[in-house]
Design a protein that fits this description.
The structure holds 2 protein chains of 2 kinds.
Chain A lengths: L1 H29 L6 H17 L5 H29 L4 H23 L16 E3 L2 E3 L1 H23 L1 H11 L1 H6 L4 H26 L9 H14 L4 H22 L4 H15 L14
Chain B lengths: L1 H21 L5 E7 L6 H20 L9 E7 L4 H13 L5 E3 L4 H13 L4 E3 L14 E3 L4 H16 L3 E7 L3 H16 L3 E8 L7 H8 L5 E5 L2 H13 L8 E3 L7 H6 L7 E4 L8 H14 L5 H20 L4 H9 L2 E4 L2 E4 L13 E6 L2 E4 L2
Parallel strand pairs in B: 1-2, 1-3, 3-4, 4-5, 6-7, 6-8, 8-9, 9-10
Antiparallel strand pairs in B: 10-13, 11-12, 13-14
């Protein structure tokens, strides 16, 4: 049983990490508490569902379609809601209120368009049969999730460190004014981050929708609390931190439920959050951030 | 011009008079608080369908209280207790309804029931099966069989058929109904001498049960006993089979499983799930066949137990109005206690505690290819 539980932990942790990746980008880079993030998860999943059911696309094409649609929706929403705030140099908390209103609106719209019922991806899309790998029962989708998450983290890391756009994003994250003075098109960068983080959340949504066989308008909301915990412990804007913290949370939840008591699952996870913040207040890999004159 | 205006005015008044003839008096207003959106929406929308079908039939035959139509005003509670309370206050204070049907979930009834009770309005739950619902007050009724009546029948039949000696008991610990179901399951299992190998919990909103199920799988139980609402329940059933718990180990569910939503979420994995119910679609009798046909015709889908119970309750309420003789909430309440009807769920009376008096009609069903059939 231990190996199966460890595998469960790996899959669940990967899902959490995937969810947290885009979230930490938005929060860390754009300095915005974007509550619309949970909505993009559902938007991506629903767009992929439409792609499969109405446009007759295959799994991968529908997935790409969902990701792109969610990204574009995010660019528009973030632009409408957040640009005025940025221009007025509003405090970070205003983004909380504004995006709260935004997510309430968008969730209602989603519900009106799609209904509150839970939808399923057609079963023929991905083989449901579990493979036997040693003592483990492994579903192909679970392997896809793990591979996707680790692949995306590596890709993201390379992108942020080694490409011009990635460097521009990091520059805007640190000092948007200075970056603008250096010739960076801040508006484009912000739009790019919006698209990127929503694309990540949409990927999470599609994989979650496939894994748990459930796509519904509020699917992102239940993960938001855990998402917050992960990005705070992992460090805001820190990709490695999101991965490690996500995996750690998944591990803690599964091990507690499997070996201690499923009653204590949430308690242990959030106790670990408090402990983590106490020991490493700037995130797992963080450095103390000072404000220099 | 002058003549045409007179003609138009005459036609207008004739039309108004004619439409007025159909129902000369003011409609009888009833409120209904149901989960029309959100995770429990499947229950609420089916209940609404049952109410509407019955109300249409009753109104077509002349309504209640000598020719007054029943008008149902719906409020959505979305499985939120606060919203259920607000809905009750709005229906009573603004719409001046005479009685309230619902809310859908026991959780919501515990919140909204006291509001109606204090204002002296009968409130009738058609789908609340937790313990203690009618203890809220003397204006609170329920037509749904409490879990304490249904679950022992389900377990006894399952034990006889599958020879169950050891089970795993799983439930969501953040909902009043599923917790109540868990209490009943636990008590009944102990009474029937079945060993509980482990008790696992999860949240109503959870979608990952792999940790709990992997643990359960390692304990070699004969069956899984689950008290959950349809969404979590469906996800749990699906994951259980995906993790390799074979169909020879049946999953036994409480009232939350009495919805086609289980099969919608779990697909083939839902086959073989065992649930007790006071009604199922292929139940014998002309009345049931007529109901199923009318429902299919109006909604292009099969009714479920929630729709059937709602349909019966609307008829019970209409009969109570006629027995009361006037549109008065207090008289309606007294009339309800004298209910004697024979509906889709069989002969029905309220007991002294305003819950159903008997649990005779309970059958144990199983899911086959997405449909509910009798467990042989």
């Amino acid at each position: 049983m231990l190996s199966q539980q460890l595998f469960n932990a790996l899959v669940l942790g990967s899902v959490y990490a995937l969810f947290a990746l885009g979230f930490t980008l938005t929060f860390g880079v754009l300095r915005v508490i974007n509550l619309l993030y949970g909505f993009y998860v559902a938007a991506g999943a629903f767009a992929a569902l439409v792609g499969v059911q109405n446009l007759g696309l295959g799994l991968w094409a529908a997935g790409a379609f969902g990701v792109v649609v969610a990204g574009l929706v995010a660019v528009v929403c973030d632009f409408l809601l957040l640009t005025p705030l940025r221009r007025a140099k509003a405090p970070e908390l205003s983004s909380l209120i504004v995006t709260l209103g935004g997510v309430l609106l968008m969730n209602s719209v989603m519900q009106i368009v799609f209904g509150a019922e839970v939808r399923r991806f057609p079963a023929r899309l991905l083989s449901q049969d579990a493979l036997s790998v040693g003592p483990l029962l492994v579903a192909p989708l679970q392997l896809v999730i793990i591979a996707t998450v680790f692949g995306l983290v590596a890709l993201l890391f390379w992108f942020m460190e080694r490409t011009r756009l990635g460097t521009a994003i990091r520059a805007v994250a640190e000092r948007p004014d200075t970056a603008a003075l250096m010739g960076v098109n801040v508006g484009l960068v912000v739009g790019g981050v919006s698209f990127l983080s929503a694309a990540l959340s949409a990927t999470a949504g599609i994989l979650i929708g496939l894994n748990f066989n459930a796509v519904q308008p509020y699917m992102g909301e239940s993960m938001m609390l855990r998402g917050f915990a992960i990005i705070i412990v992992g460090g805001l804007g820190d990709i490695r931190g999101a991965l490690v913290a996500g995996l750690a949370l998944g591990f803690l939840e599964v091990m507690t439920a499997g070996y201690v008591s499923s009653n204590l699952k949430e308690a242990v996870a959030f106790a670990a959050l408090i402990l983590g913040l106490w020991l490493r207040p700037n995130g797992l890999f963080g450095r103390a951030s000072g404000k220099r004159a | 011009m002058h003549r045409r205006t007179i003609l138009a005015a005459a036609a207008f008044s004739a039309a108004t008079a004619l439409s007025g003839l159909a129902f000369a008096a003011e409609p009888v207003k009833i409120g209904a608080i149901e989960c029309l959106t959100g995770p429990a929406a499947k229950y609420g929308t089916m209940i609404k369908a049952g109410f509407d079908l019955a109300a249409d039939e009753i109104n077509a035959k002349g309504g209640v209280l000598k020719g007054r139509a029943i008008e149902v005003i719906y409020e959505d509670s979305a499985a939120q207790k606060e919203q259920a309370i607000n809905a009750a206050k709005k229906l009573i204070g603004r719409d001046h309804v005479l009685a309230i049907l619902g809310p859908t979930l026991s959780n919501e009834m515990f919140a909204a029931g006291p509001v109606a009770n204090e204002r002296g309005l009968p409130i009738i739950g058609t789908s609340n099966t937790a313990k203690g619902i009618t203890d809220i007050g003397e204006f609170v009724f329920r037509t749904s069989l409490p879990e304490s009546d249904v679950l022992p029948v389900t377990l006894a039949k399952a034990k006889a058929k599958f020879g169950i000696k050891k089970v795993a008991l799983l439930y969501s610990n953040d909902d009043a109904f599923t917790k109540s179901g868990f209490d009943v399951f636990k008590e009944t299992l102990e009474k029937q001498g079945i060993e509980i190998a482990t008790i696992e919990t999860f949240s109503v909103k959870d979608s990952d049960f792999s940790a709990q199920l992997t643990k359960v799988k390692s304990l070699n139980v004969d069956a899984l006993v689950v008290s959950a609402l349809a969404e979590a329940g469906g996800g749990l059933v699906l994951q259980a089979r995906q993790l390799g718990i074979p169909k020879t180990i049946p999953i036994i569910g409480g009232n939350g499983f009495n919805s086609p939503k289980i099969a919608e979420i779990a697909g083939d994995a839902a086959d073989g799930v065992v649930i007790g119910s006071p009604w199922f679609i292929a139940k014998e009798g002309a009345q049931n066949k007529a109901f199923v046909e009318a429902f299919r015709k109006k909604y292009s889908q099969d009714p479920d137990q929630f729709a059937a119970q709602a349909y019966d309750t609307m008829y019970i309420l209409a009969a109570a109005f006629d027995r009361a003789g006037e549109a008065d909430s207090k008289k309606l309440r007294d009339a309800l206690t004298k209910t004697e009807s024979n509906g889709l769920l069989g002969p029905f009376k309220f007991g002294a505690d305003r819950s159903p008096a008997t649990a005779e009609g309970v059958v144990v069903t199983t899911i086959k290819a997405g449909k509910f059939v009798l467990l042989q």
